[in-house]
Design brief:
By secondary structure, the protein is mainly α. Among the domains are: 105 residues, Cytochrome Bc1 Complex, Chain D, domain 2, CATH 1.10.760.10; 81 residues, Cytochrome Bc1 Complex, Chain D, domain 2. 42% of the residues lie in helices and 5% in strands. The longest helix is centred in the first third of the chain and has 14 residues.
Length: 266
């Protein structure tokens, strides 16, 4: 008769055997994402650091006014990172800060957050990159740091980055997308896609044309734009379009003219 301890050990080993291939191949079971909410504005501290955070917010929401020499279009940081960088699935700042440094296939290198922000100015703003050690980058990084206060590092957060819309079962149709755009998007962004102006200020940003993001920007990719549209558009009515409509609107917007990728000739 086998000793009870041996039986118990055999049972334990049997229970662990299914995990063997995972351990042997170095795979890890991914941790489930956790929820996070950034601190409210009233929590911004007083003193030099708080001043830098507030400066970062001003640059973020009024980029042309406070960092105009680096901007080449009518967009602000908030045009893509909605609600002052707070909104989930619109690349929120609180998710960005704890995600860097990270490897980016776009430039095939490990980038710091400041370098990622430089890319935003170059592509989404169709401008030039501010210096890494200058006040513009330092202020936005400080604002990002404050927004991420209390967020776990190295743990997936619900709403980080952009929403990844499942692959479309049909080829995205820009002709149908034009109809959806005219019905659901043109009121804000204009039938011509060039945005709207109110009181001399940009009311809603252009989504194509010479004053929009260039072909090197992240949203110039149909898949990424479709996810952004699905979760965030129309403004304040996110997740109201069907997946198909989101894909088709993205295809339509992407088919329109915009500035060239600065890394290329067209």
């Amino acid at each position: 008769m086998r000793h009870p301890l041996s039986l118990a050990l055999a049972s334990l080993l049997g229970a662990l055997l299914p995990l063997g291939p995972l351990v042997a191949t170095g795979q890890e079971i991914p941790a489930p994402p956790v929820s996070f909410s950034p601190p409210p504005d009233r929590k911004i501290p007083s003193g030099p650091f708080g001043d830098l955070v507030r400066k970062g917010e001003r640059i973020f929401t009024q980029t042309g006014k406070y960092a105009g020499k680096y901007v080449g279009n009518d967009l602000t940081c908030e045009s893509c990172h909605l609600d002052r960088g707070r909104k989930p699935y619109a690349a929120p700042l609180w998710g960005a800060y704890v995600s860097y440094p990270r490897f980016r296939s776009k430039n095939m290198k490990v980038s710091r957050l400041g370098e990622r922000i430089q890319g935003c100015f170059r592509f989404s703003m169709n401008g030039v990159a501010p210096p890494l050690e200058g006040d513009t980058i330092r202020s936005i990084v400080a604002y990002s740091f404050w927004m991420a206060k209390g967020a776990p590092v190295g743990t997936p957060l619900v709403g980080t980055g952009m929403y990844h819309l499942p692959p479309s079962p049909h080829k995205p149709d820009p002709f149908h997308g034009k109809k959806v755009y005219e019905a659901r998007c043109a009121l804000c962004h204009g039938a011509d896609g060039l945005g709207t102006v109110s009181g001399g200020e940009i009311g809603f940003p252009p989504v194509w044309g010479p004053r929009s993001y260039n072909k090197g920007a992240g949203l110039a990719k149909v898949g990424k734009l479709a996810g952004f549209i699905k979760m965030n558009m129309p403004l304040s009515k996110g997740d109201s379009l069907s997946d198909r409509d989101a894909w088709d609107v993205a295809a339509y917007v992407d088919s329109q003219p915009r500035p060239a990728d600065p890394r290329k000739k067209s």
